[in-house]
Design brief:
By secondary structure, the protein is mainly beta. The protein is built from one helix and 40 strands.
Length: 493
């Protein structure tokens, strides 16, 4: 990701900022900060340096820790009491905006991008055998000079460093996706380098079983790799994602495939392009010879940028930068439904600020998020909900209607119908749940149904086009006087 600079705003200015942006015609951040997500705690120890990603460390006895990355290092945070997090250690790292980490056994591996002067330091190993007193493996001679991201196949013991430079198997300095064996966890060895920086730059990779989902940012594709033999990756299939708009740029369409994660049943793939206004997609990958895009994440603010999908069971977690951490129900993997969110960022929407990453793999059910300006957030999802989904149409059998606002009466739950007319809403359960649907040019519609917790109810919404005609004329101050320009006309009723 690329970092841009725009102002941040304190909480008390949120309402004034939204009003001012509306008056000026700009795009405000979401005025509502959260839904179905409780903030348990917030830790901001290194705001002067700024932050990047975060991840989890789960000890063998079940103790949970967060690893929060500032520009200058890694903060190890005990979460035994999630409402009172405690930093137990801090490890200095080479100065960089990009640090990421992953767990393997009782070790934690950290990558750093753009280490100065080609000094080894792009891969750091922490021994967490005693998580209250972790230590750096100081005698490790890293073959990695820098790496953008990291992934670990914990089942088979292989480490992947996409967007990396370092010493390859032949002893030469090369660039690409490094694949290392963790047969000796304190001294990983490079067994292969896949691709190169240009044009085959691998931005991220997610590995499950013998498959790797490599996001080839410069090419705008996801490569599905056969990693049966990690020393010799082979291509199974490749997905071309749609062109997006460069965030903060000149609004030119371009491709920027960023990261991917598969559903629990491995049939669907969730892909982020890190672009706006769309940029997050679901693909059916059951038949690799005929991969289909089955869903596009519409309905977010137009400058929102989706980042780093992570799946845990039937939940999808996404960091959406300036619109915060978002949680989706993917019981129907091809049709995600947003069930909760927490916006960590107070500024206007758009650009690379706010929530970098969401880490949800804690057995206790909590999840953490890292905000680039304000640090570590610890959350709990409080979602008792049922789902209502269907299609908004013109009349009972007419064409689909996009952009209709669907809102649960008496609740903050709302969504808009997508370009294909589909909508899906997580609602507060009840014996008489009412959905109000409105769109200019159509009569308002209210429909009710019973919804129980955990249910998934179909409900199509037929809208009747409002009676309409046209009226025209001129506006004058008095009869016979000159016409008035820019008079405001209001249609009522």
């Amino acid at each position: 990701m690329t970092r841009l600079t725009t102002p941040s705003y304190p909480r008390w200015t949120r309402t004034l900022l939204v009003l001012a942006l509306l008056i000026l015609g700009a795009e405000p951040a979401s005025a509502q900060q959260s839904r179905n997500v409780t903030l348990l705690s917030h830790m901001d120890l290194y705001s002067m340096a700024g932050y990047s990603s975060c991840w989890s460390y789960i000890h063998s006895d079940g103790r949970e820790y967060a690893v929060e990355f500032s520009r200058s290092g890694a903060s190890i945070v005990r979460l035994a009491d999630p409402q009172n997090p405690v930093e137990v250690a801090f490890f200095n790292l080479p100065d960089s905006e990009w640090h990421e980490g992953r767990q393997y056994q009782h070790y934690f591996y950290i990558t750093t991008e753009f280490v100065n002067n080609y000094n080894p330091g792009g891969l750091t190993i922490l021994d967490m055998a005693d998580p209250e007193h972790p230590r750096r493996i100081s005698n490790f001679d890293s073959p990695i000079l820098w790496s953008h991201t990291i992934e670990i196949d914990t089942a088979r013991g292989f480490l992947y460093t996409p967007g990396a430079a370092g010493t390859g198997p032949s002893g030469n300095i090369v660039q690409g996706l490094f694949i290392l064996s963790l047969a000796n966890p304190e001294n990983p060895t490079v067994i292969a380098v896949y691709g190169d920086e240009a044009p085959n730059y691998t931005h991220t990779i997610h590995v499950r079983g013998t498959r790797g989902y490599a996001s080839m940012q410069n090419q705008g594709t996801v490569r599905i790799l056969d990693l049966t033999n990690p020393a010799q990756p082979s291509l199974l299939a490749e997905i071309q994602t749609p062109a997006g708009v460069e965030p903060g740029g000149d609004r030119t369409l371009f491709r920027r495939t960023h990261s991917a994660w598969e559903s629990a049943d491995e049939r669907f793939l969730y892909v982020s392009d890190e672009t706006s206004p769309l940029g997050v997609y679901v693909y059916d990958i059951q038949n690799l010879a005929n991969i289909q895009r089955v869903y596009t994440f519409e309905g977010m603010p137009p400058r929102s940028i989706g980042h780093d999908p992570v799946v845990r069971g039937n939940r999808l977690f996404l960091s959406y930068y300036t619109t915060g951490a978002r949680v989706y129900d993917i019981s129907n993997p091809a049709w995600p439904v947003e069930i909760g969110y927490y916006d960590t960022y107070d500024g206007r929407d758009g650009g690379f600020h706010g929530c970098w990453e969401v880490a949800p793999l804690f057995p206790s059910g909590i999840f953490v998020a890292s905000d680039m300006e304000t640090g570590l957030y610890v959350f709990r999802l409080d979602a008792t909900y049922g789902i209502v989904r269907g299609t908004v149409r013109k009349g009972p059998n007419g064409p689909p209607v996009a952009g209709a606002l669907v809102r649960q009466a008496g609740s903050s739950a709302s969504t808009v119908s997508f370009s294909d007319g589909r909508y899906a809403l997580a609602v507060t359960p009840g014996s008489n749940v009412t959905l109000n649907t409105t769109l200019f040019g159509y009569d308002p519609l209210s429909k009710s149904l019973a919804v129980t917790a955990g249910s998934d109810r179909p409900l199509d919404l037929p809208l009747r086009a409002s009676d309409a005609g046209s009226i025209s004329g001129v506006v004058r101050g008095t009869p016979g006087s000159p016409t008035l320009n820019e008079a405001e006309l209001e249609i009522t009723g």
